[in-house]
Amino acid sequence: MSAPLRYAVTASLGCAAVILVLWPFLDPEALRGIVIAAAIALPVQIGAFALLIRYRDNTNGFLAIWAGGTLVRMVVVGIVAAVAIRSGAAGAVPMLLGLAGFFFGLLLLEPIYFRPEAVETT
Question: What sign has the CA pseudo-torsion 26, 24, 31, 28?
């Protein structure tokens, strides 16, 4: 199994676990916001990680993807904040906190799957 696929599975399971742990403590609007945050954070993180893996042997490309991924995450948080505040969504604050939390947690998960894959030699 490739590193991006393993990362995607683990990230999805991690987000699901966080949602399940928080479920009893949140009202329906806050829970909906947390689920939306996970649905937004997962594809962004998985895409950024897949690009990092693809360019890990090219130093300039890697740095460009790394900086671009960081910028994309910040823009996503900004756009989600603007949309949530303008719409007056009831779960806006938990959604934004959840989005930042998911981004941070999933970033901490990346180094585990970033190691070079074993090459078989004879």
Answer: negative
φ and ψ of 4, to 5 deg = -60, -35
Say what the pTM is.
0.84
Asked whether residue 30 is assigned to any structural domain, the reply reads: yes
Grade residue 113 by pLDDT with cuts at 50, 70 and 90. confident
Taking the C-alpha atoms of residue 3 and residue 42, their distance in angstroms, rounded to an integer, is 15
Domain presence at residue 118 = no
Query: Is 122 within the bounds of a domain?
Result: no
- What is the count of structural domains for the chain? 1
Q: Which long-range contacts (CB under 8 A, 24 or more apart) does 11-15 make?
A: 11/42, 11/45, 11/46, 11/106, 11/109, 12/42, 14/105, 14/106, 14/109, 15/41, 15/42, 15/102, 15/106
